[in-house]
């Protein structure tokens, strides 16, 4: 058990060293803003890694958008510590309410699209 604790502490130390120390305050503010609490330090380290990776992707995308390579900007939100797979899984379980009012049926919408093409 003592060996396991030492190994865990060493891995946590290595993981912390891999993070950008300039982002620590940003990470803490993001967690507070979105009410994020993690069960273990290992889980938090993993979520921090995903969050930093997502932040890098957002920053790169927005830099490219400023050079007219994209027509929209991205921003960090409450899903910043989730992988693409986790986000997709969370949306896969959503259900459209049966009483949702739709102005057109799928057939009517298709007919409108076909008419607009002419």
From TrEMBL:
Keyword annotations for this protein, in alphabetical order, are: Signal
* Signal peptide annotation: 1-17
UniProt cross-references to InterPro entries, sorted A to Z: Papain-like_cys_pep_sf, Prot_inhib_I29
Location of the Cathepsin propeptide inhibitor domain: 27-87
> Mind telling me what this protein is named?
Cathepsin S
Species of origin: Salmo salar
